[in-house]
Every structure is written in structure tokens, then in C-alpha cells.
Amino acid sequence: MNVFPRAMRVRGRESVGRLFVKGEGGFVYPFRYLVCVGEGEGVAVLVSVPKKYHKRANRRNVLKRRMREAFRTLSRELVATSAREGRRVEIALIYCSKESVEFNPVCDAVEKILGQIARKL
Q1: Is 40 left (phi over 0), alpha (psi -120 to 50) or beta?
Q2: % helix / strand / coil in the chain, to the nearest 5?
Q3: Calpha distance 107→115 (Å, rounded)
Q4: Contact predicate 8/73, CB 8 Å
Q5: What is the DSSP string of 83-105?
Q6: Model confidence at 2, in pLDDT bands (50, 70, 90)?
Q7: What domains can you pick out in the chain, each with its CATH number?
């Protein structure tokens, strides 16, 4: 069962600030991503679709749902790696395209991002 519990969300001003200040990033179309590795266990994600590119809230919400679903289905390997290494991984996924992309390209991009992060651990 693929669930998205509260523990898998980056929340709190301090965590978000640390992610954007100290996080290392990259770009995989259509995402810009930031990663911050710390002590502890688990994987957490922050999902963002800027209003600058998608003015309608319903369009932003659809894109965020696709991003969360892709993360939910593909994060098992990264969760196992982080538990084995004893490190907490926080990820920010920022949608950076003006076009709305369907689920399959989103899934492919998230898979590529998670693979890159797992190799760096």
C-alpha cells in the first residue's frame, strides 16, 4: 500500500530553511531539486509548483498530486538505503516548466532524481 504519511513531508520553518540554504541541487526536466542529508532515518519530500508558471490553483494541485504519487511509488529503494546508512534525506521537488506534463514523464524524472540521490548516499 502506497501511503504518504506526515513523516514523509518536509515541514517546519527550520527544516525548509535548512533545505534551501544548505541543500545541494540539480535539474532533471521538468524539476529542479534540492537535497539535504542529515542525521536520523527516513526520507521526506517537499513539493512545490510556483504560481509564476501556473496561475490556476487547480492546475497546480494536479501537478502536485502527480509529483507526490510518483514519489510514493518510487521511494522504497531510497527509504531502504537511508535506513541502512542511518541518514535522513530531505528533498525539495520544484516544478519548473510552463507546460503541464502527464504522469509518465513526471514518474521518469522522479525516478532519475531518486536514483541520483541514492548513488550519492
Answers
A1: left
A2: 50, 25, 25
A3: 12
A4: no
A5: HHHTEEEEEEEEE--SSPP-HHH
A6: low
A7: 6-120 (3.30.230.10)
pLDDT in tens, 12-61: 999 999 999 999 999 999 999 999 999 888 999 999 999 999 999 999 99
Left, alpha or beta for 13 (phi > 0: left; psi -120 to 50: alpha)? alpha
**Residue type for position 12:** G
Residue ranges with strand state E in 1-121: 24-28, 31-39, 42-48, 87-95
The answer on pLDDT for 1 being more than 60 is no
Q: Which of 109, 110, 93 is nearest to 50 (CA)?
A: 93
**120 phi/psi in degrees, rounded to 5:** -75, -25
For the sheet containing 24-28, what is the strand order? 24-28, 31-39, 87-95, 42-48
Q: Is 45 helix (H, G, I), strand (E, B) or coil?
A: strand
Q: Which residue has the higher pLDDT, 4 or 101?
A: 101
HSE, side-chain direction, 13 A CA sphere, residue 45: 23
Cell of 90: 530531505
